[in-house]
From TrEMBL, chains A, B, C, D:
Entry EC number(s): 2.3.3.16
Record-given protein name: citrate synthase (unknown stereospecificity)
Pathway assigned to this chain's UniProt record: Carbohydrate metabolism; tricarboxylic acid cycle; isocitrate from oxaloacetate: step 1/2
Protein species of origin: Muricoccus vinaceus
Uppermost EC category: transferase
Length: 263, 263, 263, 263
């Protein structure tokens, strides 16, 4: 078999040094770089500008915590079963970050990146948005990044993220198109369909030049932080056992009732 | 079944607000709090002091990247198989963060927290360290947080973390005991047994008041960042397929050779 | 909040009994039912017929082992890092069972189930297949379940699975359509595009009445068995550390060479 | 770096054949070997005897289903978030199979294997058991495989597994020691402390010659089957969303009450 050399610029170690992205971790980074700047460096291979730093930090912070999500509950239940493997409890929670919830940042970014790729700078974004909405609604598809079951008429996270992106000169055509999509979707449906947080993340990240395939990664980083937080609370004030026993008890009672003809 | 009420202070949502640890995410946190301060808030329920902020950021940054670790390779191989589930690729990598590698921050923190719990402030840490080392070496056990297969005579990350902890007034008896353990272990064994990075994390986190059961969580947060970085590089410059095919090819060739009597 | 009762027929326990699908585990199942019949019972809620039993067993066995796959390597690397969490090592390997590899059983089953739903029993399957192939090839999409990078001109697993399904009276229109898809795809492309193992699994499972959303589950069950097998070999003859060190060494050498201008 | 050759006997493929453990999958195994015999072959490298086949099947079947466990709930919640990644939902559930629940098969097997290693065939197992119990109870440790919170005075699965092991000539000193441990623990504590299902699995697997490090793997295989079953029911009769919304609603109500001074 012909071999292709394995190459990576992520990092390497010698007995007295750890190199990360070509920088000396201990001399150049540790104590000098924040976690979110480190995340940017890891993903893009370069340090962020001050504006990128500020906006990217917000993109990572926004999804850290959203209360007792299915992911948080799954992490707590897993920690109950395997407290010796905190990492596996976080992993279990992350596994649920798919198309139903926060994973939609990816779909939103793909939508606007695909739509704008190769188009001229003065393309009519409202017309583009109307076409996308018509095509999607025509086949009864939803528009990723648009609409929220709870946060209406607006998702309160979106204006903050968009304002930060504007303030730091990052908001561009991807953000503009995402806003146009919301307007077009609302016009076509007559319903409240705001840009939601994952739509805002996808659009701002796109204007920062990030590949759509990585946008779900921003949500994953933020939520990993939040899931460790849930384990911290679970250690202090456990609730996983109570949730489990309630579900077990209720399903067992209902099943027993049906078997004995009570139901 | 008697039910216990489910209580959580992590967060909750109303149509127009998202509350995180009792704060309004959009008004009080987003754009104002860094990711690592958010992590501290999630874990402890309060904002960090400036010194805690600085030191905690370093604790999270230090394990983000260590080159092509088994975890990074596992994440890349998983991404190859399921590129539509970036979150599961990160989860797969995190699952390997157990007792062999970075998970040892937990063991190191437990060791020093157990040893110091309830002891007077002027306890003789060197004597305590000698006793621990004698007991552990006596049953051929290793000392978590001490020694590194590559980084000798010192792990270069440790002095930076300890210096930051000193500078910001955080280093206390847990850090002192960890250092004493290294000295005692070196004296007893005649080998180079420096405090390694996970030992430093465990000791500093202990002096910050964090429960030992959470120390692995700091490593998990940092490494989640790094694993997203590895996926970013894998998208630009794939290597997972090459690693897989080499392993498959070599094992298949060797097996075929043995079956035909060549081996 | 209005609550909907939680109901489940999976199982429940009393102090002296464990009920599974309404049967007494210890009296009726244990020692009397095979693992694959138990899998069928769990998925469908009833015992299999003798023919279903035979065919379903083969569907589960066929994907157990395929050598050093990316999943097997990921499981071994994870076990290296967390040998105390065998379950997490299997979980890590399973996470890679997505759209690239064995997860395609799901796509294949969806394709034939969607195509046949509501059609008359004498529908022209060859015409249907030609239409599907034309539509897919027209948008440069592949056909799930068709083609294999290594196993050419046929995937040797497919005729065995199809023969078993015929022998036991299970093969029906879904199998017939899958075969027609292969013929149509080969005619349209001029290439060898056999029904592969996941295509065969998807088609046979569809003729057994299984929802397409569960077909990936059959692959998951089989592969979980295989991944435990890989851990067994890894315990006896470790290779994960060698794979890791080779990758780390080669990437570090290449990176160092580039930094010093050798590359 | 000096390389060690990578060797594996698990399997390999050529264009027209798939070899598994040196056998031709399509000619020798598929349609002829059951899933549990395949599991035995994968783990041990040889086909089971008829007695081993029967007993091993029971060891895998016994933990498939135990109702709405924390693992089953975690799998369902994960599937709710990422229905496109069934494999990740099973993986999330498996991650919880640690020291609290079924993972204890490993600890039980280690206990009896460590105790019996190198002892003469006529060693006094009752005395051995009394010593182990005294040592463990002395440091307030539990005895893995002994006692069950619900199944009292006996775990109904244990006598069935032990009877099967006796009937097929497999029960030996490991089973005898496990029984002796239960008697000794009951005598020392005055409480009902039966051998539980994981204790029985660990003891029987030990008498079959399996390494204690693999015993958790038997539970993992069985439970992977059960978790796919839970997803099948979740597709037909969803309950994950209801569980999530109840938890979210109750915690949010309680938090809001506390903030407004109602609590």
């Amino acid at each position: 078999m012909k071999q292709t050399p394995l190459r990576s610029g992520m990092g390497r170690s010698t007995p007295d040094r750890i190199l990360v992205q070509g920088r000396d971790l201990c001399r150049d980074l540790l104590g000098k770089i924040s976690l979110s700047d480190m995340a940017w460096l890891e993903i893009t291979g370069r340090e962020p500008t001050p504006g990128e730093s500020k906006v990217f930090d917000a993109l990572l912070v926004v999804l850290v915590e959203h209360g007792m999500t299915p992911m948080a509950i799954a992490t707590r239940l897993t920690y109950l079963g395997a407290p010796e493997s905190l990492q596996a409890a976080v992993a279990a929670g992350l596994c649920g970050m798919g198309t139903t919830f926060a994973g939609t940042a990816e779909g939103a970014a793909k939508l606007v990146q695909d739509a704008l790729r190769g188009t001229p700078g003065d393309a009519d974004l409202d017309a583009m948005a109307r076409d996308i909405v018509a095509e999607r609604f025509g086949r009864k598809a939803t528009i990723p990044g648009i609409g929220h079951p709870l946060h209406k008429p607006i998702d309160p996270r979106t204006p903050v993220l968009f304002a930060l992106a504007e303030e730091h000169g990052i908001a561009g055509r991807h953000v503009a198109l995402m806003r146009a999509l919301s307007r077009a979707a609302e016009a076509a449906s007559g319903k409240s369909l705001p840009v939601n947080a994952t739509g805002a993340i996808g659009a701002v990240a796109s204007d920062m030049g990030l590949d759509w395939r990585l946008c779900r990664g921003l949500a994953v980083i933020g939520r990993a932080v939040g899931l460790v937080g849930h384990i911290a609370e679970e250690i202090r004030h456990p609730m996983a056992r109570e949730i489990w026993l309630r579900v077990e008890d209720e399903t067992a009672s209902n099943a027993a009732g049906e078997e004995s003809g009570d139901a």
